[in-house]
Amino acid sequence: MTPTVTDDFVNFSSFLVDPCETIQIKRYKSSKTGLTAVHADIEGPLVSGFLALATKVLNDDGCPHTLEHLVFLGSEKYPYKGALDSLAPRAYAPGTNAWTDVDHTCYTITTAGSDGFLQLLPVYVDHILYPTLTDEGFYTEVHHIDQDGQDAGIVVYCEMQARENSMTDIMQRRLQHLMYPKESGYQNEAGGLMENLRTLKIESIRDYHRQFYTPDNLVIVITGKVDQVHLLSSLEQIDKSILDKNHNMTRSSKPWIPAPVIPDLLHDHTEIVYFPGHELEDMCEITVTWLGPHWNAFLEIQAIHMLNAYLSETPIAPLKKVFVERNDPYCTELDFRIQERSRITITACFQNVPLAKADDIVPTFISTLHAMLNSLEIDMDRMAALIRKEKLKFLDEYETRATYMVALPAITACLYGDLGSDDFVDALQQAKYLDVLVDFTKQDWLHLLKKTYIDSAYTALIGKPSLAMSERLIQEENARVEAQRAYLGDEGLQLLAAQLDHANRINEAQIPSRIMEGFPIPDVSSISSIEVLTAINPYCQLLDATTKLPKNPVQAHVSRDESPGDIPFFIQYDDISSAFVSISVYMNTSNMPSHLRPYGRMYMDTIFASPICLDDGSLISHDDVVQKLDLDIISYDASLGYQGAFREYIVVTIKVEAKKYSAGVNWLRYLMWNIQFTHDRLVVAINKTLNDIPQAKRSGKLVTDWTIRAINTDITKSTEASCSYLYQDTFLPKVLDKIRKNSSQIIHDMNEFRSILCRGENLRVHVMGDILRLKQPKSVFRSWKLRQKKVKAIPPVIRSKDAFGLFGRRPGQCTTVVVLPATESSFSIHSAKGPSDFDSPEIPPLLVLMEMLHAMEGVYTRLVRGLGLSYKCWLSNLTESGLISLCILRSSNILGAFEHVKNATHQLATGEMQFDTYALEGAKSSVIFDIADCENTREVAAAQSFINKVLRQSKRQKCQFFKAVQDVTMQDVTKILLKYILPIFDPRASNHVIVTSCAKSQEIAQSLYLMGHPAQVIKVEDVYARDIFQQ
């Protein structure tokens, strides 16, 4: 490709990436500094930036990761901690973020509209290329010893402390050592090991920055609607700033060009890897990994993707049948993961394996692959269907997550190749290789199976929990800390405390007002939006006399589609430009009898993998159902609610090509009314869930959420609570026992559950897609022959608060400490009453206040994360449930974090501490970003239309909400703080859950008592076992 030169930037020829050829890619490279930029023109209100540098992990000191965090503490031009994240909201951005991988570090930013993005981009680049890297920043953020003699670090050390001995990290580190030679740069831990972090010096990080953070090693990938003239102007401004600082620039060599030689593995290797466990843990994880082709062998990699899909996707895949879809499963999930390096790795991952079966997994897996090869077993019809479906998935992902479809392969291509090469273009046009795979023969697939998995050596790791290891690590850490305290002595600890206090004072220097004032907030009118036109089924007017039909072309089109009989249930249509149609059925569970509610999880787990009875009485096996679904449907799902809200609804969703709309509607009819619940399929579903639960119960965050739900809800009224893993852990073993003795009663209960759930009055259907192109948008639903003669009036929208018990309706006097042996950190959630009307005038000031408190540079974050007390602290406004919650995640001192937040809140309420004007302005901008983010793609915008109109029943328009946010005053947020935030800290008005380790539970409970929060201490198994929260 012949590049052109525009001023100082080489402009390579543009190209299109998506199958519909709507997303154009442009590439720029500075002829003076080597700075590289890639722009993908993607529709939507958001603009995203990925600023990536190729970095190499030279040892286990953690330089790449520590440097990532220190970048945010200020730059030469903006030498103040938090300057970048204080300016970000003024660009309509929620803040910044970053990740560190073994071969690169990437910094990210997303803004609503392009004006703020282009204004913030030079500031971001200044932080990346010219960070301050001060001694004080290193001391607080990376590693120090506190006044108690404990090793700490506000971000880095605490993060690695939580990660280093996790199952995932232990297995990944061991795998890297076994797969790669030391000189490759892939063997070490990018985050650093705690032992190394304790001796790391700032000079090492500065040297690392000089080596890798150079302009010609920086690529900026930008996605969204950005004017090219304005983009080039911003890039030239950055280029000029770089040249001003580097008059005699020398180009650096790219760390991954040429790519390191990764030799083939010489022999198969299986090894047991232990991770800290507890006495109740009886599940493990197993991985089998191969080296694959080089990163730019795009056709072969896509072929491996499809072979993996054939082997493991859907319940009828060969490996799923052997390992998962059986009465006595080897594991609950089996999938393949491809990791992109200079040579890819392919890993088969077996999750939640019973310890008794651990030693059988690898030999059974390898023998199954050999048997497939020897018997020449490749179902070419199924493979053709999978390839066709994968092509449609590519198209769908360019509609729903185009930013990542472009950014991630672009980063990889820049790490290992050249911006102007054919490899770069090919990396972003991988859908085209599926057209080649259509012509693969059975012999081609068998050859690939043989080459990739049979002839190549593998490394297998069996990750097993070890109580002895857990106890040993605790003993070793306690002994090390005691020895450290003894060595330092009281005087040494006091000196370290003074040193930390000094570093904190330096780091917390106030950002001058001139910096904030020099960064004007763009006009909100610069944020684009996606138009969605709505229509509803006219029959809704008979079900609800207050219903009014919209006046637009979509409604006219739907109304013209007459049918001989009425369609007697609610349907909303949202018209967007799309090649697909999504149909979601929201099923109200408010009238479900309490003894049937817990069957909701079994229903969702079996609806797409059970036999179906056709209208003529013939039966389709569950294998055939799955295979036929793959022919007609792009994706399908059954879940509770939408994105964490309205979880008293069971939602069944399918997505089809627009031309298969009628088939999709018919499939939903069969799935909702005609599936046959059988003994075998129910046992498979139950065993899978029971084997999933132990791993889920290792998550402190999940256990915290489940417990507060148990406190707030009446289990007899809440489908969400009765379907939670903690309740299912007590419910499913009883069901399994009954079904093994006599399955007829359980099958009867499942049929009764289904018949109540699928009554016409319980259904709210949402159809989104290009409605105007559907010939029969309404009349196709005639096939849904409801079982009752007459549909009743539509019941009111059910919300979480409708299923509350006493503690949920009137929070207060309920504090619970849950003992979780699997965690070393602590987690908490503290809930009080909040607004419950989505159109309440209190919502805009509440959202603004929350941003002022928990944003990256907000009061809570600076206190809790800034002092190293917790990894994250935030407020959650749950309008649907009428609650507002304070959440603290991964804390080393949970009550210290809570007390600091409490004291700060009281100081704000009394005026002892005050917000500044810039915090208010920035918070408003962050709220506006959040609104834009809720409608960032056409599909999400259409889904939001249904949520707002039907479930939230909100009448407020987006422009009205924008204005309400912009009109919020300091007096408004103060009133909200007094009314809704202060009660969170009042034990008489709030409920509290703390999840912590065995070692800390009693100490925390005693401290809570002294704070006025008498607490009960329970095991995680007892949350539902004793009905302790039900009154």
Automatic annotation (TrEMBL):
The keyword Amino-acid biosynthesis does not apply. One of its GO terms (biological process) is proteolysis. Residues 200-375 form the Peptidase M16 C-terminal domain. Keywords: Hydrolase, Metalloprotease, Protease. Residues 61-147 form the Peptidase M16 N-terminal domain. GO terms for molecular function: metal ion binding; metallopeptidase activity. It comes from the Eukaryota. InterPro entries: Metalloenz_LuxS/M16, Pept_M16_N, Peptidase_M16_C. This is Secreted zinc metalloprotease. It comes from Mucor ambiguus. The lineage of its organism: Eukaryota, Fungi, Fungi incertae sedis, Mucoromycota, Mucoromycotina.
